[in-house]
Every structure is written in structure tokens, then in C-alpha cells.
Design goal:
Length: about 250
């Protein structure tokens, strides 16, 4: 049931046209749309403050377009599609305006030109090779209404590059630290700032990096307080969590 329908139902209860029991029965209608291959959660925005995000990997372009079409029909804006291929992006673009980033594979369907930019999130990367994950995090946070600053290639192999931006880090309400190799960046940043740090290990690195496992374990074992860790290459998860923290009441 869409928001306007809920309001109409509540007005009917207030006027006496519908009993509370009848209204309760209507509200129990399944809060999702069954598309056959997907069950779109139509209540996600109301429950969590942001609409369902489409994970594009392993979905066909037709499936992605079907989900997007239903969300557009319901007035959706800033619809996020992660791991969106170039082929699928071309098909989605026939439905609505699409802001697609080839580097990260993140697509924003029907972007809102009046989207707010609240608070301040900094996305810092150990190296240029981490940028695909960084951009997924940064663009996710921006699509959710946050102001984002990018600090790329400021890894610990050249610590002066990071220290030259301490003022930028200090102004952030959340820092996302993205690094592969040994993943030391998160600990260093955690020791410099008073805000929460979200560490993102990436699969960047040589053989003993084990596809990001070494960076993940380093970040999980960080001695800096206030550092939390998301999964390997999970830029979306970091951007989403950073948005939640940045927009907490009293902060944003």
C-alpha cells in the first residue's frame, strides 16, 4: 500500500467510513509486489528511510528493467543499482535518465536534481587501484543525500599525503577508509579523527593478499578505537552505513 493510500485509509477511519478493524485488515496486505523473479519491497522507504537497492550482478538486463520500471511507476527517484553492466545500463537508460559510472558500476536511475547534500562524509583511499570501491561508496552516499569529499591515493606508503589533509578529515562526521594490500590506512585514519571510521578492505594486492583477506583481517584487528569494518570490496555497504551515521538526529 502506497503512502497516499495509507493517508486516505486513515482519513476514512477518522470520518467513520471505515472501522479500525477494517483498516487493520487492509494494512495487512502484503507490503511487496511479486514480479515473479523478484519481490519488490514497497515499504522499505517507510521502514528504513531509503528505498530498496537493486543488486545488478547475476540479474539479466530484463529483470533489472522490470524492477526499475515498477519503482518508477511508484514515483521512485535516485534508484540505486549496484554492479550494473554496460549492457544493462543501456537498457535501463531507455526507461528513465540514468547516471551510470563505468568505474564502479553504480547506476542512479531518475536522479533527483534537488537532492540535498547534508553533513560531511570523507572517502579516503590507499591507492588509485582502490577507486572503483571508493566511487561505489561515494556515489551511494551522495545518492542518499550526503555531502562527500574524496581523498584518493593517500595510503601509508606516503604518509605525508594523508597528513596534508588532516583538516579535511577532521571536518568529517564519518570517514570511509578504503584500502587493499595490508589495509593499514584505516588504523592510521582512526588514530587521527574523532568521528566514526568505516573500513573497507579491497581485493587489491599480490598473492598473499588472498583477494582482500589480509586487509580484512588487519582492519578487524585495528588498535584504533572507533573503527568498524564492512566486507571486502563492499563500497555500497560502507556508503549506506556512513549515510545513516551522518544523518543521525543531532548530527546532520
Amino acid at each position: 500500500m502506497e503512502q497516499r493510500d495509507v493517508r486516505a485509509l486513515l482519513a476514512a477511519v477518522a470520518s467513520g467510513e471505515v472501522t479500525p478493524e477494517q483498516a487493520e485488515a487492509q494494512l495487512r496486505v502484503q507490503p511487496f509486489v511479486d514480479l515473479g523473479y523478484a519481490k519488490l519491497d514497497t515499504q522499505r522507504q517507510r521502514r528504513q528511510g531509503s528505498a530498496e537497492v537493486i543488486y545488478g550482478k547475476s540479474k539479466t538486463p530484463q529483470q533489472i528493467c522490470g524492477i526499475v520500471s515498477e519503482m518508477l511507476r511508484r514515483g521512485g527517484t535516485d534508484i540505486l543499482v549496484t554492479h550494473l553492466s554496460a549492457q544493462a545500463a543501456e537498457q535501463v537508460r531507455t526507461l528513465a535518465p540514468l547516471d551510470w559510472d563505468e568505474l564502479s558500476g553504480l547506476g542512479i536511475v531518475n536522479p533527483d536534481p534537488n537532492r540535498p547534500a547534508r553533513g560531511h562524509i570523507v572517502v579516503a583511499s590507499g591507492g588509485t587501484s582502490d577507486m572503483p570501491v571508493c566511487e561505489e561508496a561515494a556515489r551511494t552516499a551522495e545518492a542518499l543525500g550526503n555531502r562527500v569529499t574524496r581523498l584518493y591515493d593517500v595510503g601509508v606508503a606516503g604518509l605525508h599525503r594523508l597528513l596534508a589533509n588532516v583538516d579535511v578529515l577532521a571536518s568529517a562526521r564519518v570517514v570511509i577508509a578504503v584500502a587493499g594490500m595490508e589495509g593499514a590506512l584505516a588504523s592510521v585514519v582512526g588514530g587521527l579523527v574523532s568521528c566514526p571510521v568505516i573500513a573497507v578492505p579491497t581485493s587489491v594486492g599480490y598473492g598473499a593478499n588472498f583477494g582482500g583477506l589480509s586487509a580484512l583481517l588487519s582492519m578487524l584487528n585495528s588498535c584504533a578505537s572507533g573503527v568498524s569494518v564492512v566486507n571486502i570490496d563492499n563500497g555500497f555497504g560502507a556508503g549506506f552505513l556512513a549515510s545513516r551515521i551522518n544523518q543521525m538526529e543531532g548530527l546532520a
